[in-house]
Design a protein that fits this description.
The protein has 12 helices and 17 strands. It has 437 residues and is an alpha/beta fold.
């Protein structure tokens, strides 16, 4: 089998992996990023989540990508970069959509700026070789055969912690009980099969001529939905997100096939109902997303697991450990947590990226060390990209100096803007009123 040697190897080219690749390359590490798809993008691409709503993050990389996309005709909405979910008046800001082709081009342009960064698309992660507390190499495969990749530092940027779980790292899945991490707003009992809900996204064109002849009365009642999330694309098309309505557990055999078929049918029927009922009679279907949108999978039981208690005491502790900051609500679909708690900005702890069991492995994906509730907001692509960039910088420092990731301080790798004071004040006021602060 072929062999490749590098300083930093990253498994997964979603938002966290993209950030990690840029972060490692800008700190002069010989960097390799691997993905099973031939182009970077992750869930943003596969599930059509190509809108940052209602902000485009608080890191320098998301700002650069937004500028790149806006410079392309119809590449992104004609809006300025913002880091707050709400305005000074407390009103929610508009969504910031961009086209998938523009996003991928912007990412590839960023990659092209580094001679020491190499994207290895179309390769599936197969196995890992370890030696005590170190990851020695990983094996990936494409149609031409297998390749073994040796690196000094590895970053797992896969959505399901594929590398970390193969290494045997402790992980979590589903809801945690209120006793597991002393979270007062968590349920009484844990349930590994109860995850943040999934859904299928589709795209429509208003003012079109939908060619359907469906009796509204024949459409299942669960598809009669007036409440949906709409993102108006630069060309006027609309991305329709029915906002979570099915549950998928990776530990139940055949569950993905079941829920994928269920959600595809439900999304399509919501479209049929909106047209046939007269709610949106001119919506022409442009297409369905390539795959199911999954918000949550396995999460790392990291050296530091972030809990809602960390969220509630934001600004009081741990500030020196932050490598990113959220801008989205504690958004666990299928619960009332967002309605009750609202949008609470909080910092992402660096040690939530570090497994307990290995010294040269970091995690930069929605699987970072957080409880089920906290993962509902730190999973967002723009947040993960900023955290990934910090992880990549840490990996580069370690690869070139011989340090361990645990020896790196957040101040050496973090680069993000904190949200406006009024956003923190509004969140703290609500928590105080609820007796949680």
């Amino acid at each position: 089998m072929d062999t490749i040697n590098c300083d930093v190897a990253i498994i997964g080219a979603g938002s966290g992996g993209i950030g990690a690749a840029i972060g490692a390359a800008e700190r002069d590490a010989n960097t390799l990023i691997i993905d099973r798809e031939r182009l970077p993008g992750g869930v943003v691409a596969s599930s059509w989540v190509h809108n940052w709503e209602p902000t485009c993050g608080n890191g320098p990389l998301t700002r650069r990508l937004w500028k790149r996309m806006r410079s392309m005709p119809l590449g992104a909405a004609d809006m300025e970069f913002t880091i707050s979910r709400t305005g000074q008046n407390g009103q929610r800001l508009p969504t910031m959509p961009f086209e998938l082709w523009a996003y991928r081009q912007a990412v590839l342009d960023e990659f092209a700026g580094f001679d020491n960064l190499h994207f290895m698309g179309g390769h599936t992660f197969i196995s890992v070789n370890t030696d005590k507390r170190r990851v020695k190499s990983v094996v990936v495969e494409n149609e031409a055969g297998m390749t073994e990749i040796h690196a000094k530092i590895f970053i797992d940027a896969s959505g399901a912690l594929n590398l970390a779980r193969k290494c045997g790292c402790a992980n979590m899945l589903g809801t945690d009980s209120c006793h597991d991490f002393n979270e007062s707003v968590a349920p009484e009992k844990a349930d590994r099969n109860q995850l943040n809900e999934v859904n299928w996204i589709y795209r429509v064109r208003p003012g079109g001529r939908p060619d359907i002849s469906v009796d509204p009365n024949s459409i299942p009642e669960n598809a009669h939905r007036s409440g949906i999330f709409q993102a108006v694309m630069p060309n006027g098309d609309i991305l329709v997100n029915i906002c979570g309505s099915g549950n998928y557990s990776p530990e139940i055999p055949g569950d993905y096939e079941r829920v994928a078929a269920e959600q595809y049918s439900l999304a399509l029927n919501t479209y049929y109902w909106r047209v046939a009922s007269g709610m949106n009679p001119d919506w022409e279907l442009v297409g369905m997303a390539p795959s199911l949108g999954i918000r949550e999978s396995y999460r790392l039981r990291a050296r530091y697991v972030m809990t809602v208690n960390d969220v509630f005491k934001f600004g009081k502790h741990y500030g020196k450990y932050f490598i990113g900051m959220t801008d989205h609500p504690l958004d666990v679909h299928g619960t009332d947590l967002e309605a009750r708690l609202g949008s609470i900005p909080y910092g992402i702890h660096y040690n939530s990226l570090l497994p307990v069991e290995f010294d040269n492995l970091l995690v930069a994906s929605r699987g970072i060390g957080a409880t089920h509730i906290v993962a509902g907001s730190c999973r967002l692509s723009r947040t993960l990209m900023t955290c990934g960039q910090a992880a990549g910088r840490a990996a580069a420092i370690c690869a070139l100096s011989g340090k361990l990731p645990e020896d790196i301080r957040a101040g050496e790798i973090a680069e993000f803007e904190t949200c406006p004071d009024f956003a923190i004040e509004n969140a703290n006021r609500k928590l105080t009123d609820m007796g949680l602060l």
